[in-house]
Amino acid sequence: MRVIIFLWAAFCIAPDLIAQHQHPHDHDRTIDFPDIPGYYSLVCDLHMHSVFSDGAVWPHIRVEEALKDGLDCIAITEHIEYQPHKADIPHPDRRRAFEIASRAAANTDLIVIHGSEITRRMPPGHSNAIFITDPNKLITDDALDAYSEAKNQGGFIFWNHPDWTAHRKDGVAQLDQMHIDLIRDGLLNGIEVVNTKGYSAEAFQIALDNDLTIIGTSDIHGLIDWDYDVPHGHRPVTIVFSSDRTEDGIKTALFEGRTAVWHKNFLVGLPEYTEPLFQSSIKIVGAEYVGDTSVLSVQIRNHSDAEFLARNLSEYSFQEDHEILSFSAGSDTELRIKTGTRLGNVVLPLEVLNIVVAPRTYLQSELNIVVNSGE
Amino acid sequence: MRVIIFLWAAFCIAPDLIAQHQHPHDHDRTIDFPDIPGYYSLVCDLHMHSVFSDGAVWPHIRVEEALKDGLDCIAITEHIEYQPHKADIPHPDRRRAFEIASRAAANTDLIVIHGSEITRRMPPGHSNAIFITDPNKLITDDALDAYSEAKNQGGFIFWNHPDWTAHRKDGVAQLDQMHIDLIRDGLLNGIEVVNTKGYSAEAFQIALDNDLTIIGTSDIHGLIDWDYDVPHGHRPVTIVFSSDRTEDGIKTALFEGRTAVWHKNFLVGLPEYTEPLFQSSIKIVGAEYVGDTSVLSVQIRNHSDAEFLARNLSEYSFQEDHEILSFSAGSDTELRIKTGTRLGNVVLPLEVLNIVVAPRTYLQSELNIVVNSGE
Amino acid sequence: MRVIIFLWAAFCIAPDLIAQHQHPHDHDRTIDFPDIPGYYSLVCDLHMHSVFSDGAVWPHIRVEEALKDGLDCIAITEHIEYQPHKADIPHPDRRRAFEIASRAAANTDLIVIHGSEITRRMPPGHSNAIFITDPNKLITDDALDAYSEAKNQGGFIFWNHPDWTAHRKDGVAQLDQMHIDLIRDGLLNGIEVVNTKGYSAEAFQIALDNDLTIIGTSDIHGLIDWDYDVPHGHRPVTIVFSSDRTEDGIKTALFEGRTAVWHKNFLVGLPEYTEPLFQSSIKIVGAEYVGDTSVLSVQIRNHSDAEFLARNLSEYSFQEDHEILSFSAGSDTELRIKTGTRLGNVVLPLEVLNIVVAPRTYLQSELNIVVNSGE
Amino acid sequence: MRVIIFLWAAFCIAPDLIAQHQHPHDHDRTIDFPDIPGYYSLVCDLHMHSVFSDGAVWPHIRVEEALKDGLDCIAITEHIEYQPHKADIPHPDRRRAFEIASRAAANTDLIVIHGSEITRRMPPGHSNAIFITDPNKLITDDALDAYSEAKNQGGFIFWNHPDWTAHRKDGVAQLDQMHIDLIRDGLLNGIEVVNTKGYSAEAFQIALDNDLTIIGTSDIHGLIDWDYDVPHGHRPVTIVFSSDRTEDGIKTALFEGRTAVWHKNFLVGLPEYTEPLFQSSIKIVGAEYVGDTSVLSVQIRNHSDAEFLARNLSEYSFQEDHEILSFSAGSDTELRIKTGTRLGNVVLPLEVLNIVVAPRTYLQSELNIVVNSGE
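ok -> structure tokens follow
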């Protein structure tokens, strides 16, 4: 007996006794952000493992998790040098995990990218090369050769968890000479500013200083649901602003740095992309003055999964709210602005505290409100 | 800042920090039952108090509570003899509470009925007379005169909480000679089988034996939300099966005994009315055999607020379920019936354990399933 | 059948079918803040109405609501000049609502203060006088006389909703000459910076400029549960920092300006009081370095109902968190600080974004962390 | 930033914005039943798969799932003949999955049993042999040889999903001659009456008729959380009544038929074991008469995960409840019995509708209530 709630889902008076509920969690767990002008906002997780390196699941589970989370794209990135299950899975072909995942996604919209984690001691530490064609060729003695081979295959290469305490006892991401050289030679194109649960402000600064694409990944080994407390939480993802819904579109976007990271309730990224993402997420759906007052009631709809937290930078104050506002995910919010006199247009500059555009720096944006003239 | 959740209501990843949620509880708390063939299923609470007798609120709150609960009809039934707030509210006109409530409901669909509680020692104890025109005339020395006057005014009179331990130390409803006489003379037309939180099997038996209309009421004095833990619980109500949405329709239905009581998760009433109510609530929305098996998958939709609990009386057993089934409120349920061979029609007799048609006796009904023939 | 959940309250596999749950909401709705050094933190609602002016409930409901909300003190503040129920409640003695509420609270710890709303046109508009002894004497032709009489009775007088659009079309609180005079003469001692759902930044500025005690009130007329969506939301209250749990203690505190306002998720008040309140709410319960790294794991316990939202002002960054932190209400939070080297003591300066110490100005405080030295 | 809620878990006024909650789900998902006199009630799942046959996870995930669910014991039961991942995992030793799982459970209280699924066409279909020492020896041409070998190794053998529509088009479990022979020869000791989501009344009848131990299993291939909607639902398990917490104890119990199955909200098993399980679950924690009435208020505590649903078989009726009672999982319930006169002892016979002791037959038990004498 499977039960699908169709009417009053949230609080039934008489919950189900005998059969166990099949709650429609899948709906709750999808990660939703609107597209921005000119680009699709594709939700990608570009770092994950299966039993084919040190992960806990067969690769098709990564596909199923992604579909449940509403992702547009994943990259399969097994360690090629680190194979703890080798005694049981001696398969010499490092393409195997990708093949299985790829087949599992065959009749879905999910894009599965072929990648590998190049797993070396510091420097350079661990990196992911994605969009490669044959990971077997990345098994080399010299790390640099692996990076070169990945580049030769057209790979996009990003540095993983540069703040990892196994590599940096102080947890502070920092470039070694080798990283500087890799970047100079186009062998390091991106950097994880978020890996698993961790955000690294220093990695973000390195991205800004060196024009690296910012990346956030789950680096999942176990189960997404457990590690990220789904549906209450979500895995970190990279939102890729792509001109189409193809692997090529994503690749181009990554090389051009068109990304933002969604981690906990924060968006991390350049204003160039996070500003339109904020504007596409937050829409004014109505604005009119209350009675004969000069208090403007504005209906604001948040089309995204982020609860935006914004500090008022305008000259106006509000009738009900404090100067720090919140716009709940997937909700309508009413804001009452005391505009002093009745205006036809109101601009409300805001500092969006959960959109990080540089370490300790938040997006400055504004709401452009056209007052309903009525008739 | 008022927040209305519009998309992913149940589990937001990032709940609202700064503004407080305005949860759409009103939707959750409405009491919903479908109409039955020939009659509207009107949800009525026919027993309540305000500050004009011993209640805690101004009468318009009773209207607001009713609107929030989605009721079709309420009766204002102040004690006429018991006026603990008399020192503060000396108003001599017992019509006052009704007037206020009536005006508060003026621009709504809520029907407000004029009633009064006739509050006497046992026998006869307390009764409600509703559809009366002037409660002032019910203030008499002799209880019998009050009943006669109520009848003269066209009143429908029902016995309140006949199991009350202040009147019956054993909590067992029982007729005194005076009640027998009142019934004989048409001065007692109904009986509460549910009052507040209490159900009385003996009162139900009295109703059956004496052809009294069965009634369930909140008898609210304080706040509905507090006493009935809304929205997790609900007040007891009388579902009146009326040929139209008018006071007259309700009155006729009550005199003709067309009611059922909704209390906790139970419906109490004659099969004549609870059988069509069950049939209107539970609809087969699909039925087809699984693959090439003789296992029939049936989609069953419950359009009511009741979680129906039913014992299988058929010769068939189920593929997944035990012999006691549940159909969650406002939900779809899949039932897989092992019919042995593939049939075009299946009848599934059931004992509906939460529809009580007599003390310790439950509704026998059946699901008539027409198998989808395919294209 | 009353059900009390005692073990696995949050998510039972098999919720209750037949009986309706009696959820322990009362526990969830209490407003909890810790005491501060030298003072009790008493939670007070100093503005409310019953049927004895234009409210909807008998006064004892105000006591019951307060007890459910865990308040320490309420003031009954009927309009003395505005009596819309006068036709029904002609009682000439304006002390009546207080008497009833007071008696209802007799065997509880709730302190009930005698007050009245002095309800005049602008200027001066509406004010509450509390700790008065006889509101009848405040019925005067001249508003000023009412203020003087209230003062003579020892009253503490505060200006209600100075931003009310019925009085100020732009919703902006502003002193008229009469208010200036009242303040000068000690006839206006406080001001509502929060009334009902509204916060007024300008009222807060007036309080700061004129040394008025800041007040936040529900001004409840209907039901607390409905207007404030309890238990998801809460009524605004004034937290009074009192040297004892007595009416006198509260009175002294109010005259000395020892208050903060709790509204939505914001605390509003002088740093003198909100700083110790923050420090009493947030306690370090453990701090040790992770393995052999210089990453310090700190366990932080929030003993209050506020979710504190804090911007990192230190030189350090964090291993997992962004620079804006949140400390959930009634919860433990782990914060991982990258201190560069292993220290014995760490000071973490913070800007607490939901503690407003002046319009657009937030509390600057710090966490003083002593690292556990090990055994 | 990890957040652990410590005080007001259920409904915080200001839920966490910035950090994502780490809800203490693990607590909610544990399967809890009390021990019975003379035996531990050990919660066991005796049928599961990993990547070493056709499952989706590395074996240690099965251990982690079991620990999260609070199980006492699992059996690893790979198909030995069906190895769809053989191209990737060519390991010839069928003991491998058990070895890995066993090592993963090394420092826990979880008992891991060595088993294998003997996967043959009908007859005999699929069976699990558990407590075996070397599954490799079960790879035989003749199914009967595999059963004999399993028996030689001391195995307990039970028939899996005898109602499977791949084997029985009508979904009706039925013995073939071969099964009759296996049972006669001690080569079939138990039968799944519950597999995955399915309950088979006919399998239960076969168990009763042939003295087979009744078994319920998850037969998990994917993820427990997904297939059983944890924490809202739970996997089916076998509760084994064992004299100690050892593998030997469980083995003896299984051969002696000391089991019950927990599936959805039903317990399935012989009254010999389900009666004491009900009695251990339901405890009277107080009983006294209300005031001077003969209405007995009884406090009943349910120590189990089952919501018991019981039909009153006594001569008494109740003051508030209907004749079908429910006792919520992990909760206290008050029942008010109208005993007519005040008694010192009350026996309340019940039919427990969610304890199935034979197809369509429910446990008859009784509550023995000793009235508090007070003084």
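Chain D touches chain B through 48 residues (CB under 8 Å).
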